[in-house]
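Weekly modeling sync, notes
Attendees: S.R. (lead), two postdocs, one rotation student

Agenda item 3: backlog of single-chain predictions. S.R. asked that every request posted to the team notebook include the full sequence so nobody has to chase files. The rotation student volunteered to paste the first one in as an example of the format we agreed on. Action items at the bottom.

Example entry:
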Amino acid sequence: MQRKLIQAAGITHLSTGLTIAVHSGNGTAAFEQLEILKEQGVSPSARIWVHAQNETNTDMHIRAGKLKTWVSFDGVNPDTLQTNVDHLKTMKENNLLEQVLVSQDSGWYHVGDPKGGNFKPYTCVITQFIPLLQQNGFTKGEIDLIFKTNPAKAFAIKVRKL
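Predicted structure, as returned to the notebook:
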């Protein structure tokens, strides 16, 4: 079933130019997806590895970036700030910031919990994460690349073939 879903995503991309964003989980699954897409002639740049932070082997992030697929570190929140800075430092050290996306999974609402549970505001990236990147030596140009240029490229409607 998983193979068929990725094949369907490849067919859809080749027909529409829409970007393929996949909650891949671990790196093994992410690379299996790339192989399936490759069989269809779809460029790795057409796919986003969503929640790449769940893969603890940073060599897989580097390998994916070198293949020109998008590596998305999601779930930036007050509890994961330093971990995500470290991911971005690794990608920067390997000249791969141009393949990085970042997002903030927030606002979780849990039915039945008082007030929906522990709500995480949608401001963490702006108020905490970007200042922490600056403190860790990221330039304005690098921050603009990560938060402006890369998303525009990743989500551009464009057929990307091998």
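Discussion: group reviewed the output briefly. Helices lie at 2-16, 27-39, 58-66, 81-93, 124-135, 140-154.
Action items: rotation student to repeat for the remaining queue; S.R. to check formatting next week.
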